[in-house]
Specification:
By secondary structure, the protein is an alpha+beta fold. The protein contains 29 helices and 21 strands. Helix content is about 55%, strand content about 15%. A hairpin with a 2-residue loop joins β12 (about 575-585) and β13.
Length: about 900
């Protein structure tokens, strides 16, 4: 029978005898593993939901999307599908205005007369998959059917509850959309194919296709999203059918998607979100790793005599390292199991933190793979942060059993911190064992980060950034400690004692500051970026920015629109701009295939719908950076009949769009406008200030280029606050197809989403602070005997309990202050880099955020430190001193 290795037996005896010293070791690991497992379970559940409900989320087996109605040929293509037993449901989505009767409105103080809404008009076949959830639950077809009302035409409508709250309505009340009346027959809870609900222009309203026709909202050039949902029989191959439809409808700017694509836009958004949250959770795990290292270091100091005795009995350093490594890995397994349990609970909180940022309803199923990943990540982290402190076993001399000079050795090391750091680096390079261990640790942590980030490059960058932050915090702490050395000696005994404790060798001041400082840096960085974005949203709005944008003003409604604005808002300044909607067809003869650019970075430049206008003068807040603007009084542009001749229409393109499209001055860009081809030569490139909140365009055509095209008008208006509601109400009454978009409401929606996202990230980042607090507790616990002896001496010479508590409190406040100052400083630098290089925004000083970060850190450090030393204060001094 094979014997159990002696290293395992010795490790088991150590575990049984000293497991209480690993309590904080387990806590440090559990918090980090719990964060990793919670994020991984959340990501797995989202992925499985998208794959399981792919048909419902798409709305069918196939979906055809277009920005305008299909041509007669395209509609015939869809009609022909019925012969192949393919079921088609046509869905039309647009933005409109809803209103309540004036008499009813006047009886409800505080309700609005008009409200911007998102309309979804469906056919009887909808939904092909899934079910529309509403209150009360009933047949959607019956809910949207025509009704017998005093005012005709009249139909049923299912609306979101926010619309009822806005108008002060209840079920079965009436509202008006366009030229038709509607009775609220249900409250909309969930649409099976509605997945992106984080940002919307208004409450959702479901009506029938017949009702949409009765509203008279659809006009030539109206902005409508056309969706054709297809249910394909199993006997018909999906792939070839998709290719066939894409080939026949691609020329009309339509895109065909399959449920097998599993919602690439949603997956991309959620993948990015879970990747960043996963890296933040890994930060908390690595911060916990610092606590693991501190615990092992303190444990080995406690075991110095034991190790020295074993060496005198013949045990070599390799055997002893295996003993304590096995012990640490066993504890790592236990801590990882605790973290797995925490992660299962954390995944239930993530949907609450993320709120409406999640476009799908996520379940809380527990699957084996994320749990296994959490266990493996925990064990590898334990190994990486344990192996380095265990190298000290090799340096413990057997003669140490006869003397106790450990503290003096540390004094020599800490005497000159910079010299010690340089000597440690030289020793690392010369000692192949230490160098090999450092390389192994770095590779292990990089692999963990790459696994979590699903990218070797991103994982390596994360490790570099984390190590840089740790080094900067450590150097900063050393600098501040050196500064404290040069200060005049304070008169207060409490402060002198606290300063001595902070700089005492073996006090883990640097380790505690690093652990806390990393968490502070992450949380404060998020808060600073969020605050700067909100400030930018508020302060970058010019004083003359428009209050409203009005879309879909028809050419024959222009005069009426101007009369209403002048009557209801006499002091208003407004501007009407003619526009058409178009899609790119080719650039310099190279035909654009939207499928090639889907999912690519900046691919939306090729796949989006462009709003074109023709202007004679350069818009304000636009600067020509290449080429020249056309001269005033230029002859009207004309489209040539021959495709071999150069088009006389000219276009000015936004500079970033030109770079991403690969266009330059002299390039020829071909558009498709309502199915008709239009070619234009690039004459200039413009830099556009999109923050001006005026009407800006990626593409501006030369004067006369849109003559004869199916144009509509977009209007902007600056209106006084007391004139806003009367103007909206008057326009809805006279021009129901015109949609009013209030700039302030849109910005408020954006700000709300920023707040939601910031809270979610800070909620996960808070685990880094929790890990830092646990690390601090572990570090204080590892110095328990020294603090116990110190308090006994103070009490023996007449010091009161109050003096001891005060000295400890000042010590912990100094540690928190060091960590807070450096963490806040690094957060300021990091937030500046994010705003400057990635968001192109100015960094602004946020004293409240910085002060909150610093004071919270100090308070947390004092609270954690005093709670960790609470039992020490009650020990009688005589019992402690007798042990010496």
């Amino acid at each position: 029978m094979q014997r159990v290795p002696i290293s395992f037996l010795m490790a088991w005896r150590e575990i049984r005898g000293s497991w209480r010293q690993f309590v904080f070791f387990l806590a440090c690991l559990a918090v980090g593993v719990g964060a990793v497992v919670g994020i991984e379970l959340f990501a797995t559940n989202v992925e499985s939901l998208i794959l399981r409900d792919a048909r419902s989320l798409l709305g069918g087996d196939l979906e055809i999307r277009a920005a305008h109605q299909l041509s007669e040929s395209g509609r015939k293509t869809l009609d022909d599908l019925s012969a192949r037993h393919v079921e088609v449901a046509h869905v039309r989505e647009l933005v409109g205005m809803a209103a309540v009767p004036v008499a009813e409105y006047s009886q409800r103080p505080g309700a609005q007369a008009t409200q911007l809404i998102e309309i979804k008009a469906v056919e009887d076949q909808y939904p092909l998959y899934g079910q529309v959830e509403m209150i009360p639950q009933q047949s959607l077809r019956d809910s949207l059917a025509p009704l017998d009302c005093p005012s005709l035409p009249c139909f049923g409508a299912v609306v979101q509850e926010s619309l009822l709250i806005s108008f002060g309505l209840q079920l079965h009340d009436h509202l008006k959309i366009g030229q038709a009346w509607f009775v609220v027959t249900g409250i909309l809870v969930k649409e099976p194919d509605r997945v992106a609900s984080a940002f919307s222009l208004g409450p959702r309203v479901l009506i029938s296709r017949q009702a949409l026709q009765a509203t008279d909202l659809v006009k030539p050039g109206s902005r409508i999203r056309e969706r054709y949902l297809l249910r394909v029989p199993e006997s018909l191959a999906l792939g070839p059918l998709r290719g066939e439809l894409q080939g026949r409808l691609g020329s009309e700017g339509a895109s065909v998607s399959s449920y097998r694509d599993a919602q690439p836009r949603i997956r991309r958004f959620l993948d990015q979100l879970t990747t960043y949250l996963g890296l933040i959770s890994l930060t908390s795990l690595f911060v916990g790793g610092i606590g693991i290292a501190c615990t092992i270091h303190g444990f080995m100091r406690h075991k110095l005599t034991t190790v020295a005795i074993l060496k005198t009995l013949g045990a070599d350093a390799g055997l002893l390292m295996r003993v304590y490594l096995f012990q640490s890995l066993f504890m790592g397994c236990l801590g990882s199991l605790g973290g797995v349990a925490m992660g299962v609970g954390l995944q239930r909180l993530l949907p609450v933190l993320l709120g409406e940022l999640i476009p799908v309803a996520v379940s809380s199923h527990v699957t084996a793979l994320p749990l296994g990943k959490g266990l493996l990540v925990g064990v590898v982290t334990t190994f990486c942060f344990t192996i380095w402190p265990l190298l000290a076993i090799k340096e413990i001399p057997p003669a140490l059993v006869f003397r106790r000079e450990v503290e003096q050795h540390h004094v020599q090391i800490e005497g000159s911190r910079l010299r010690w750091a340089w000597n440690a680096l030289l020793q690392l390079v010369r000692d192949r064992h230490r160098l090999g261990t450092a390389v192994m640790m770095g590779c292990g942590l990089t692999v963990l980060a790459a696994w979590q980030a699903r990218s070797l490059t991103l994982g390596a960058l994360f490790i570099v950034a984390f190590c840089a932050a740790v080094i900067l915090i450590q150097v900063g702490v050393w600098g501040l400690l050196n500064g404290l050395d040069k200060l005049p000696r304070p008169r207060s005994f409490v402060i002198r004692q606290a300063l001595g404790n902070v700089q005492r060798p073996g006090n883990f001041t640097v380790g505690m500051a690093v652990a806390i400082g990393v968490g502070v840096m992450v949380i404060v960085t998020v808060a600073l970026v969020k605050s700067s974005l909100l400030v930018a949203l508020g302060e970058r709005i010019p004083k003359d920015a428009p209050t409203f944008f009005f879309i879909d003003v028809q050419p024959d409604q222009r005069e009426t629109f101007e009369e209403i604005v002048q009557r209801e808002a006499a002091q208003a300044s407004y501007r009407l701009t003619p526009v058409v909607r178009a899609r790119l067809r080719a650039i310099d003869g190279h035909v654009i295939d939207p499928e090639e650019h889907k999912g690519k970075r900046n691919g939306w430049y090729f796949t989006r719908e462009y709003v074109l206008t023709a202007l004679s003068t350069l818009p304000r807040d636009n600067v020509v950076v290449k080429g020249a603007w056309w001269a005033a009084g230029s002859p009207p542009a004309k489209q040539t009949d021959s495709q071999h001749q150069e088009a006389s229409i000219r276009v000015s393109i936004e500079d970033q769009a030109a770079v991403n499209l690969g266009a330059d001055v002299g390039s020829t860009i071909e558009f498709t406008v309502q199915g008709a081809p239009v070619s234009a030569v690039v004459q200039s490139m413009r830099q556009v200030d999109w923050g001006s909140f005026t009407m800006n365009f990626f593409m501006i055509l030369s004067p006369g280029a849109l003559d004869g095209a199916p144009m509509t008008y977009i209007a902007s208006a600056k209106v006084e606050a007391e004139e806003e509601l009367p103007l909206q109400h008057a326009l809805v009454q006279a021009l129901p197809n015109v949609t009013a978009i209030k700039v302030g409401d849109v910005l408020a929606n954006v700000a709300r989403l920023l707040e939601q996202l910031a809270w979610a990230i800070q909620g996960i980042a808070l685990l880094s602070m929790v890990s830092g607090a646990v690390v601090m507790t572990a570090a204080v616990s590892s110095t328990r005997y020294r603090r116990l002896y110190e308090s006994a001496i103070l009490k023996a010479i007449g010091g009161t309990r109050r003096v001891v508590v005060a000295s400890f409190a000042v010590e912990f406040a100094l540690i928190g202050g060091l960590a807070g100052l450096i963490g806040v400083g690094l957060a300021s630098a990091l937030s500046w880099a994010i705003l400057h290089f990635f968001l192109d925004l100015a960094w602004t000083v946020q004293p409240l955020v910085l002060g909150w970060g610093l004071m919270t850190t100090v308070g947390l450090a004092v609270a954690v430190g005093l709670l960790s030393t609470f039992k020490i204060l009650g020990e009688p001094p005589l019992a402690v001193l007798r042990q010496e």
